[in-house]
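User: I'll paste a sequence; please echo it back and then give the predicted structure.

Assistant: Echoing your sequence first, then the prediction.
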Amino acid sequence: MVEQSEKGLPVRYPEFAKRVQEAMESQKLTVRKVQARLKITYEMARRYTLGQAMPRQPKLEALAKLLHVDPVVLQFGETAGTSQRSSGKLRKVEPDEDKPTIEEAMHFFAVFEKLNRLDRADTMSFMENLVSLSTAAKAGTTNHSK
């Protein structure tokens, strides 16, 4: 689901925006300071904080360094095999073999973002079908009529 911001621009990365805002707050940084230190426009820095844009890898790494957070955590959040917050405390989470590792997700994203729009749409459709078939196979209800 894509939310709309007050100006009607799509909010595509709400969780990313939340992590950016929290890190900016903890570092006492404003949008202007982020803009100046990353050498980007004010509007682009603002879009990061609103979840309307996701920086490309070099800017993401620079933003993470500025915010004193791991770039992977900034982009994807805390995930399996890393610490997660629970009641304000950090706890260790065991990796889930059925979920991708951070490295797998980053590799997939790096390849995926190089595709053109139509190829991305085809890839997403293929993946959704693959997940449906896999889920059905696990449940023992494989439908081969598709």
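Strands lie at 3-4, 10-11, 83-86, 89-92. The domain at 1-77 is CATH 1.10.260.40 (434 Repressor (Amino-terminal Domain)).
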